Every structure is written in structure tokens, then in C-alpha cells.
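Pipeline run #58 for the internal structure catalog. This entry was flagged by the ingest filter as a single-chain record with no existing model, so it goes straight to prediction. Upstream metadata was stripped on purpose; only the residue string is passed forward. Reviewer on rotation: M.T. Logging verbosity set to normal.
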Amino acid sequence: MKLLVFAHTPPPHHGQSFMVQLMLEGLGGDCRKRRRDGDGGSRARRLPETDGIECYHVNARLSRHLEDIGDLRIGKFILLIWYCLQAIWCRFRYGVTNFYYIPAPGKRSALYRDWLVMLLCRPFFRRFILHWHASGLGKWLETMVQIRTRSITYNLAKNADLSIVLSNYGRGDADKLFPRNVAVVGNGIPDPCPDFARAVLPRRRARLEARRLLSVGKPLPPEIAAGAGTDPHVFRVLFMAHCTRDKGLFDAVEGAVLAHRKLAEQGSPLFLKLVVAGQFLHGDEEAEFHRLCATLGQEVVEYVGFVSGENKQQLLENSDAFCFPSHLESFGLVLAEAMAFGLPIVTTRCGAVPEVMTPEHPGLVEVRAPAQIAKALLRLTDDESFEALRQRFESHFTIEQHLFRLARALRTVADSGSTKG
């Protein structure tokens, strides 16, 4: 099966571009690059289950920085036409008949991009695959745009041979365009904490035991003190995402401040600290964040900026809980990452999040509810679900499981094509 992957990889780095990169690596890399290099041995390592799928990648990158995403500029449309011509060239040069594309969320500029790609590319390919990484397009088309916009979108993108969604929640968007088949394929990531049981779990247990002893006024035994680090009284909560209102940044700040004040009112020796890691996309939100911290939580909130690599690893290891009160999520890749580190999680009951966390997860709160966030954070100071969260990651969200399910879904398109002749 030859697959034309019309999607961008980092930079800029966000959940969608990262998953495209992982997919390409897991399916053996870009065949165009291998052909240019003339070295089959440079092929990326792949799982046996993905054999038989060859990817031809058109890196349809329109933005270099996160701040540029969504900007409507004529230069982007010219670049997009060039990418479409590359895809059509691959169709005839390499005999690629399957076109893989990631549709837009509910935004006009992104929707116009989709129209152009569908108009230029779809007629040249035998089979058409949509992979829904974002959510909200279906409702947006039904409620926020004119009937002409809706009609054009339906005519250009309907009847996909396969729509891949990240969760059952995401079926709503896919079904609006009447696909021939829908497959649910949750995201997965390479294990970011393979040494969890030896290197991370003992510290989590020691810090939990230290908080329990400190809360009742008891001294820490030397072995507990040694394992808990230099600040066992500080309950470190991590927010790590794009620093936007929609990702719940301001709700997390207000919830952390409320929880910290409650601890002080109770005379608790514990101190709650919210560590914010991520990049601001909008200058007005960045200014509002710093004003809010200066007014409410200067001593409670610490901003460390965008983190990656070893710095990101240390943040996840050294935190005691994870707070991600997003307003709408099609999946929430950072939740899987937090589970891999056994971090107790407070997040919102929105979008696909209850499927990722399970509907019974005790850390689920309503959207835009700082008071609920505060109560949940206080409960987490005595939470010991480290191993259960780690086990959920291992059983549902590894890259191997993701690639296996993805390859199985893609093969349904190839099989249906072969039966049609």
C-alpha cells in the first residue's frame, strides 16, 4: 500500500505535527527520501505489523512558528499550491493512489486551505483518507457559517474512504462528511519514562509519605527525608501545554491560588506551587498572565517557558501532580505523557478527555471551574495512584499500540480497494 502523506512535521512543534512525525518514523520513513539517498538501509526502524505500507511525504508546512498558525496570507496559498503539485507529481512518478490528509478545525483560514487541497489533489487519487486530529469542525459548520460554506465543504470532502478519529467523541466531526468507514485509533507516544519503577516511583512514594507525616506534625525519618528531596513540604503541580486560555492556563492559576490559600487557612505546613511550562501564542494573554500572577499568585506560580529534552524530563519527574484544565480536547497528548510518569492528574470533563482518563477518574472537573480545580488539587496531595496511571499508559497509549491500530485501519482501505479491483 502506497500512501501519500500530505501533512507537516515539526517545526512548529505541537501534538498534531509530532504525531505525524511518529507515524512516518513508525511506518518506515519517507520513501521519497530513501529513493533520493539511494540507500534502503537508511530506512527507519518499523514494527513488523506495519510492513507493506510505504509513505511518500509532502511536508505541507505553512508556518514556521506557533504564532503564525492560522494567519491568512497570500504567500501561504502560493506555497500550498506548490505542495499540491508535489503530491500530484508523486501520484504519477511513484504510482501512489492513497491520499492521507488531516482536516481543519473550525477556522476559516484552515478551511480554505482544505478546499484548495481537495480541489487540486483529490481528483488524482483513487482513495482518500482523513485523520481527525482536531475537533469541532462539524458543529462549527452547522452553527457558525453560511450554507454556501457548508455546501462547498461537503462537496469537496465528503465520502472519504476512511476517516480515522482519536476517540469515540471525535466521530461526530467525521460523520458529518459521510465517510465510507470510520476507525477509532487513539494516539500513542514512545515511552518517555522507561525507568519509572526504579527511578521515579520510589521518589513519588517518599514524597507522599513525607506530606502525610508533615500534615500531622510528625518528623520525617531519615530514609523518607532522603527519598523526598530538599522540599518535601512543597506540592509541585505542573501545567505543561500551549499557554492559552483555551488550554486552561488561567483556570489552573486561579485554582492553584485558591488551593494554596486553603492550605494556609488550615494551618497546613504544605505549600502548593504551580509550575507553568509552555509557549504563549498571543501577546495579550501573556500580559494578562503576568498581571494575574502579580495580583494573585506571585509566590504560588512559577513560569519556566517552553521546555524540551532533558529539562522537560526533569520537570515531569520532579512534579507531584499535573493540571490540564483544557476547554476542549480531541485527545490531550500531554495527559498520556503525564500518565507515563505516574503523575496524578486534574483535568476537565470535556471532549475526549473522559475517554483518555476514564469517566470515573477522580481528577475530572468541569470546564472553567477554578474552585473545583482547587478542591481536586488538595485531594491529590494525598493521592497514591502513581502505578495505576502508569499502567494505564502502558496498556493504552504506547507508540507500538498506536502504530498497530493505525496500520490495521489503513489496511482496510487497501483491502477494500483490492476487492473493488
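catalog note: The longest strand covers residues 234-240.
catalog note: The chain has two domains: 2-189+399-420, 196-396.
status: ready for reviewer M.T.
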